[in-house]
Amino acid sequence: MGAPKRFVQGRLPGLFLLICGLVFASGCAGRQPTGPAGFPVKDPHSFSRPAEVSVTHLTLLLDVDFETRTIKGEAAWRIRNPGGVRELWLDTRGLTIRRVQLFEDGRISEGSFSLGERKPLLGQSLLVRIEPGTKEVLIAYETTGEADALQWLAARQTAGKKEPFLFTQSQAILARTWLPCQDTPAVRFTYTAAVEVPGSLSAVMSAGRKGDPKELPGGRKRFLFEMPQAIPSYLMALAVGDLGFRPLGRRSGVYAEPAVVESAAWEFADTEKMMEACEELFGPYRWGRYDILVLPPSFPFGGMENPRLTFATPTILAGDRSLVALVAHELAHSWSGNLVTNATWDDFWLNEGFTVYLEHRIMERLYGKEYDEMLARLGLDELSETIQELLEDHPADTHLKLDLDGRDPDDGMTDVAYEKGYFFLRMLEDAFGRERWDIFLRSYFDRFSFQPMTTEGFLAFLDKGLLAGDRTLAKKLRIDEWVYGPGLPANLPLVRSEALKKTAAAAGYFAAGLGAEALKTDGWTTHEWLHFLRHLPAGLAADRLGDLDRVFGLTASKNSEILCQWFLAALPAGYSPVMKPLESFLVNVGRRKFLSPLYRELAKTPGGLKRAREIYARARPGYHPVAIGTLDEILGWKD
Ligand code: BES
Ligand code: ZN
């Protein structure tokens, strides 16, 4: 193929000019990849050696080609090389590297590079030989079919059915599949990007948009972006599609396909209020705008905290705002995670546990203590289940501090980081009192903003601050047990929800034979329904589920959470009217949190494994690589 080569060679002067114009104008550089209290940071999931050379700014040109489903890229990395070493190590996976050039004081020269041995998860190192004076390293590359961060959607997989769609999902270690980079959360960089797409589509990134898109010859358009705040690679994000926009507040808005954007704007009406609550609690929002992008239903997660632009699943558009805790969560990451960032994936709980804690504070502030306590209770129930399962085979995965060396970081991304992390912080809040705790929390975000944080760094800050070196108190609070021990320590905070107690009791009455019509469900929120469904015993007969369905129309529910939980209750009972709707849910929705338990439950039913595999065969081409990885394993699928 001659075209890509021409593209690459023809475009490098353009990139050169862009670098001269933009890179040196940019002020905010990335920071040193050492932990805050001088802790060395060794990331087992990256080939990079940022303690020697670290990248500080990226100038990126991307050409998005929906025909070949590839991105052609030119990445210019500005580097910091205090020791004057001669090697720059980057991460790649499934990238074709076309050419490397070095840039130094206005001179550009050909660079030599080599790709290391291919590792299944980590991909290949890219070693670039540099000079001590090299300022910038330019890499021309292309993505391949192995780019697991990317999902290319055909028009029929979108709401509008007319235009294709592309989105990225870089966390945890997938940025390297669409960008050669130092793919460790300990390294941060600013970026500017120019993205070329078909003229009928729009591009958005985890960055600010610069000016209006420019029409190009050949019916294409170029969008410019600028990200003045330094971010780690896992927060690099791009989406391209037919996008509409509605403002939500003075600095927030929502992007979605035109058919979805109105209902999304209605659902997220409280976003600005959430931002205000966050700022009061945790300090200023440091990212300029906060927008939400609602993706097509194949998005494998609930949400992803890409800076300035949260990516969200459309399955939270319940029509009653009952699932907006997800927005609170992703917004909260603007402090925990995006501002103070886990140094390695072993410290993942620093991102997610803190974020769940912040999420609850936001929900409490906006919707009251009782409502939030209901959410906390649901979280605790799920955590207890996860811990019970993990304690059997992988007890170390119930520690907050993980050891994921040699493993997929995905293995560590369980409720433990989220919910055990949350309860640990809630325990600390209870111990020190909200007033002192809040001052501490805020100082943590201020002191370590735009820096990586290790678990030990946080513990040292806690020790210096609230604990004031009191070892007896640390012992009494069982801090080491929480962080480095299995299961749930004895000082787990109590979570009481009267509302949920009533719904669990209702499930008990129903299980004991009470008819569905006699149940008192008036005023139940989504969360009460979920709790009720989770408390139904496994051995219920199909006609009892039929009774529930007749009275409450559960199979027809438009609420994805309720529907999923209903399917999970109906499958073991052999309640067959759910089968068709279940099948269409599995084919149309790509959110892994729903798919994994549903396929698992389906496979357990008589003849279910065969059925599950048949459905999977149809649905698989529409799933994101991240979901495919998990589901192949669950269903023993060999491609
Ligand atoms: N950052 C996570 C999503 C993630 C984690 C992606 C690890 C890849 C690897 C995001 O903030 C998140 O936690 N999303 C949750 C929703 C949230 C409300 C708990 C999800 O997607 O389910
Ligand atoms: Zn999160």
Please characterize this protein's 3D structure.
Helices cover 38% and strands 20% of the residues. The chain has 639 residues and is α+β, with helices and mostly antiparallel strands. It folds into four domains: 12-241, Immunoglobulin-like, CATH 2.60.40; 243-322, Zincin-like (2-Layer Sandwich); 335-484, Neutral Protease, domain 2 (Orthogonal Bundle), CATH 1.10.390.10; 499-635, Peptidase M1, leukotriene A4 hydrolase/aminopeptidase C-terminal domain (Serine Threonine Protein Phosphatase 5, Tetratricopeptide repeat), CATH 1.25.40.320. Helix 4 (325-332) crosses helix 5. The longest helix has 25 residues, at 369-393. The radius of gyration is 25 Å and the shape is globular. Zinc ion (ZN) is lined by residues 329, 333, 352, 355. The site of ligand BES has 14 residues, from strand 20 and helix 4.
**Level of helix content?**
25-40%
What bound compounds does this protein have? ligand BES, zinc ion
Q: Mind telling me the CATH class of the largest domain?
A: Mainly Beta
Number of helices: 19
Could you tell me the number of beta strands?
23
